[in-house]
From TrEMBL:
<dbReference type="InterPro" id="IPR001453">
    <property type="entry name" value="MoaB/Mog_dom"/>
</dbReference>
<dbReference type="InterPro" id="IPR005111">
    <property type="entry name" value="MoeA_C_domain_IV"/>
</dbReference>
<comment type="pathway">
    <text>Cofactor biosynthesis; molybdopterin biosynthesis.</text>
</comment>
<dbReference type="Pfam" id="PF03454">
    <property type="entry name" value="MoeA_C"/>
</dbReference>
<dbReference type="Pfam" id="PF03453">
    <property type="entry name" value="MoeA_N"/>
</dbReference>
<dbReference type="InterPro" id="IPR005110">
    <property type="entry name" value="MoeA_linker/N"/>
</dbReference>
<protein>
    <recommendedName>
        <fullName>MoaB/Mog domain-containing protein</fullName>
    </recommendedName>
</protein>
<feature type="domain" description="MoaB/Mog">
    <location>
        <begin position="170"/>
        <end position="307"/>
    </location>
</feature>
<dbReference type="GO" id="GO:0006777">
    <property type="term" value="P:Mo-molybdopterin cofactor biosynthetic process"/>
</dbReference>
<dbReference type="GO" id="GO:0005829">
    <property type="term" value="C:cytosol"/>
</dbReference>
<dbReference type="InterPro" id="IPR036135">
    <property type="entry name" value="MoeA_linker/N_sf"/>
</dbReference>
<dbReference type="InterPro" id="IPR038987">
    <property type="entry name" value="MoeA-like"/>
</dbReference>
<dbReference type="GO" id="GO:0061599">
    <property type="term" value="F:molybdopterin molybdotransferase activity"/>
</dbReference>
<dbReference type="InterPro" id="IPR036688">
    <property type="entry name" value="MoeA_C_domain_IV_sf"/>
</dbReference>
<dbReference type="Pfam" id="PF00994">
    <property type="entry name" value="MoCF_biosynth"/>
</dbReference>
<keyword id="KW-0501">Molybdenum cofactor biosynthesis</keyword>
<dbReference type="InterPro" id="IPR036425">
    <property type="entry name" value="MoaB/Mog-like_dom_sf"/>
</dbReference>
Amino acid sequence: MVKRYLDEISLKDAVDIVRKTPAVVGSREMNLLDACGHILAQSIYAKYSVPEVPTAAMDGFAVLAKETESASDQNPVTLTNFDRVNTGNVVKKGFDAVIKIEDTWFVDDDPKEIVIRKNVNPGSYIRPPGEDIRKGQLILPAGAKILPFNIGAIASYGITSIKVKRICIGIIPTGSELITPGTQPAPGQVVESNTLMAEAYLRQFGVDVIRYPPVTDNRVLIRGALEKAADTCDIVIISAGSSAGTKDFTASVISELGKLLFHGLAMKPARPAMFGIVNKKPVFGVPGYPLAAQSVLRILVAELLESWGWTGPEKKTIPVVLGSTVASEGGIDEFSLYAAAKIGGRYTAIPLSRGSSVQMAGIRSNIIVHIPLGVEGYEAGETVDAVLQVPEEELEQTVLIAGVYDPALDRLAEKCMLEGIKIRLGPASGVAALMLLRKGACHLASVAAEDDCTFCGDEYTAKTFGQLNVVTKKEITDKKVERVLALAAEI
């Protein structure tokens, strides 16, 4: 009998199920500096007042305010009862104000007498006890995230360690074909890299991550690994084994140990994704294809963490003009990787490979375009919202090249990076690249040197670069494009 997914639900329904999962959160004591980015499990209170006694807020002289009442420009007053203070010094008893040093003069350089020409009120330029915070006053409540600029203040109030909420995520890689990074894979072998990527992503949320050793495609071994992880961790992610092949055991193991809530998602990539509960802990089954795994992390795991109060990378969207028509299978939510740049005052994007196993598409991309369920696709020239994967200002310094690949483009990218210019490459046939250029969807087109570029028209020019012709407009108004072409001429 052919195995099928248990079900295939919409992304919206999957997110609803994930977000309704009750939080399983522990806590631990952490050194203050190490706690940056974590969430407080207990409220913290000042151990003493700051300041504890009256202190000077300015460099000057501590005085008795009533002795300055008559001082003015027309009526200078000489004082003999004062105490020289610097900012932060304790104001001694008997004084109730500070007069700034620039408002005083010594009498005949006599340090025992000063002349003032303005009066001060009681409390002037004095920090009273507890002005910043009083002993026992709340610093931050439980649930607050510790930010870098909180650290100094918290330390000033007598706190050296704090109790923070702790989420531990266990990641189990599965597959008999897996080998460790650093080893060149033989035919049929795959470098186990998904869990490295997953840990790097998840640590942005301030969670702890345990990466378990790879488990071969054996039901008993996978079951044992899941039992151990669900006992130790708050969330478990099982990498690979989520499809419907003869060695995909994740779904059945989750069902045996707990409850499988869904298997099969109307989303691309990551259609085989699954989610269940084992030992009251949420368990995600993540496809083995890298880009599919990234989709589950970015969309589902992030939703769970955010619903529990953890925040990760900012999700910022920008409007982009699509350079090419893009179609969807229909009946799914689809997420595609694009390379984008600012061209002529607007953001323009060209598509990258839509294969889930092509990891270089993830490296070459800087935005993600979502085609929602019920939308059949977008037309070239249509403006859509895209999720940024890099800071928006980087798109200002990006030069977008569409076309065929040549090693000379790698050398160009290295030289440009040294000058703060980011090269983004979008694979396309020579003809397709030239069409993108004509539509203003890229800065440059790279085509094979023997290809005919004349149909672009008189306003375009081609320059030989490596084994390529790099085509651009004759009238270049973008200085960074001019610089890229100058650097290309040096290679």
